[in-house]
Design brief:
- The structure holds two protein chains of two kinds.
- Chain A is of the alpha/beta class.
- Chain A is built from five helices and five strands.
- Chain A has one domain: DsrEFH-like (Hypothetical Protein Ychn, Chain: A), CATH 3.40.1260.10.
- Chain A has a five-stranded parallel sheet with strand order 4-3-2-1-5, with helices on both faces.
- In chain A, helix 1 links the parallel strand 1 and strand 2.
- In chain A, helix 1 packs parallel to helix 2.
- By secondary structure, chain B is α/β, with parallel strands linked by helices.
- In chain B, strands 4-3-2-1-5 form a five-stranded parallel sheet.
- The chains are: A alpha/beta, B alpha/beta.
- At the A-B interface, helix 5 of A face helix 1 of B.
Chain lengths: ~140, ~120
């Protein structure tokens, strides 16, 4: 019997946490994909989805911290996660390099997220067998 | 292997369409085939004579006019939405192709993205 086909995925999240369920749904999907033996090439945060990568979100202690939960999954499985630089800069998500470039008082990018261009998404389109989008649903 | 980016949000009042346009330009910059489809309130992107400076925004029709120059293969407009918003072909930017937005249209693209 042939082994089931292993697929590679790029996940694109465009909905913000605490505005939409997109980051949570994407996390559940990622866990299911990995449990089924498939691979996630990368996670790309776009538009309002970049808010998932803010280390400053401080939800009440009895609510899920989606930034932290995503960070744990990404680190455990060594999955690269990139926030789109154009979306991030407009919305006030900065890493130390962008903080210095724009002379801002703080950086707030959560580890292990990185900031990079839409080229990362294009590469995902070319490399992965599936690209799945998680929108706000609004 | 063409990607279809669907813009179904109006050009002003919502940023989703702009980010869709950026995706299209990005694919084109990497020499990947891409087409844009405007549907729903998104067809308002295609109106000629926009005056976005009156609301302190940039005119999106300028970006769009450059789309084919930058390598976006097609600008498509959903005919039903054009009718709904009272837009005739003469009201639209040059180079827009009117299509029926139906499953057969989508099946000809390898990726369909609706940001």
């Amino acid at each position: 019997m042939p082994s089931p086909r292993i697929l590679t995925y790029t996940l694109v999240i465009t909905g913000a946490p605490y505005t939409s369920q997109a980051p949570q749904t994407a996390l559940n999907f990622a866990q299911a994909v990995l449990a089924a033996g498939h691979t996630i090439d990368r996670v790309f945060l776009y538009g309002d989805g970049i808010h998932l990568a803010s280390v400053l979100a401080a939800p009440p202690s009895d609510e899920a911290n989606w930034t932290q939960r995503w960070g744990e999954l990404l680190t455990a499985h060594e999955i690269p996660a990139v926030a789109c630089i154009a979306s991030a800069l407009r919305r006030g998500l900065l890493d130390p390099a962008e903080q210095a470039r724009y002379e801002k008082p703080a950086a707030n990018l959560a580890a292990p997220f990185e900031i990079a261009g839409l080229g990362e998404w294009v590469e995902g389109q070319l490399q992965s067998s599936r690209v799945v989008y998680f929108h706000s649903g609004a | 292997m063409t990607t279809l980016i669907i813009i179904d949000q109006p050009p002003y009042g919502n940023w989703a369409g702009r980010e869709g346009l950026d995706m299209a330009f990005s694919l084109a910059a990497f020499d990947q085939p891409v087409a844009l489809l405007f549907t729903g309130a998104g067809v308002n992107w295609l109106r000629q004579g926009q005056q976005a400076e009156l609301i302190a925004q940039k005119n999106v029709d300028r970006n769009l006019s450059a789309a084919t120059v930058f390598g976006v293969d097609q600008l498509l407009a959903d005919s039903t939405s054009l009718t709904r918003f009272g837009l005739a072909p003469v009201d639209l930017l040059a180079g827009v192709e009117t299509v029926r937005f139906e499953p057969a249209l989508l099946s000809s693209y390898s990726h369909v993205v609706c940001p």
